[in-house]
Task: structure prediction
Amino acid sequence: MQHFVIDASVAIKWVFVEPLHNEARRILEEGHLLGAPDFLMLECANVCWVKMRRGDIGGDEALRVLTLIRRGIDRFYPLVGLVDRATKIAAEINHPVYDCLYLATAIENQSKLITADRKFFQQVSQTDYQNSMQLLGF
Result:
């Protein structure tokens, strides 16, 4: 059993049928230990809010989605312990701290980040952090 860090781009695909949904579900169902910075729940809640505004889901459905995502994560890591490293990574690779929080979590836990965010993956693949990240579906 491997330990992975996942970001919101993967977690949200566990619940909503969109491209790479099956690949994201496979990560969840294979029994890996999954971790994430606690910030993941905020990002997923924001995705739900956007879907509520568009009328795609209701409030009860949004809460159900967040519960399912929360249950899929084995361990949440406190943001406060990750901010310094994430900020350092963001400065090094010229990428927003929000995404770098996930990468910092993976590095701190000697794990690998799985993301569906191609732009972030491509940015990181040009750096010394490339071995700490994997693109969903590959």
About this structure: The mean pLDDT is 95. Helices lie at 8-15, 21-29, 39-53, 59-72, 83-93, 97-108, 118-124. The chain is about 55% helix and 15% strand.
